[in-house]
Amino acid sequence: QPSVAKNLVSLIRKLVPNKDEEGKQINAMIMGIPNVGKSTLFNALTTSKKAQAENFPFCTIDPNVGIVSVPDERLRKISTISKSLKTINAAITFVDIAGLVKGASKGEGLGNKFLSHIREVDTIIHLTRCFESAKIQNVNKDVDPIRDIEIVETEILLSDLESLQKKLEKN
Questions:
Q1: Which of 1, 20, 82, 134 has the maximum number of C-beta atoms within 10 A of its C-beta?
Q2: Model confidence pLDDT, tens digit, residues 39-56
Q3: In what order do the strands lie in the sheet with 26-31?
Q4: Beta partners for 20?
C-alpha cells in the first residue's frame, strides 16, 4: 500500500499547495456515512489494524489517527548528494472518524462531535459506497451514492452555518 499512500499524497499536494514545503504534515480526514469502509481504508493506508473495522454501523467511536511516511526518491538522491545526516520524508496524517448520518450537525449519531475536527484538516477523503451487498449492513434502506454524498455535504454545511451563527452572536 505504500504506492497507494504515495499517490494519495501526490494528489493532496496538488490540492493543498505548499503545505508540506512549510515542514508541516498534511492532515487528511476520512469521512462518509456509517459502514462504507472508512476504517478499512484507514487500516490499508496506515498498514495497520489500528481501526476496528467491523460490519456494523458506528463501529468507530473515537477517531483513529495514523501517520504514514511517504518516501520520495528525489529526496533520497538530494540527501545522498548533500551527505545529509538525516532525511525526513513527507508524511500524511490520516484521521478516521465515525460515520455521519442525516442530522449529525444536530446531534444524531456519533458524527456530530467529529464535525468540529474538519476545520483542523487540510483535506477530506469522502468515501462513498457504490455497490450492493447483502453481506454489508447499510444505515439507509438502499445504496444511493448521490444521496449519501449529499447527506455528508449537508451536515458539513449545517455545522459551518452553526459555527458562523455562534461567531455572529459573540460580536
A1: 20
A2: 889 999 888 877 766 655
A3: 64-70, 90-96, 26-31, 123-126
A4: none
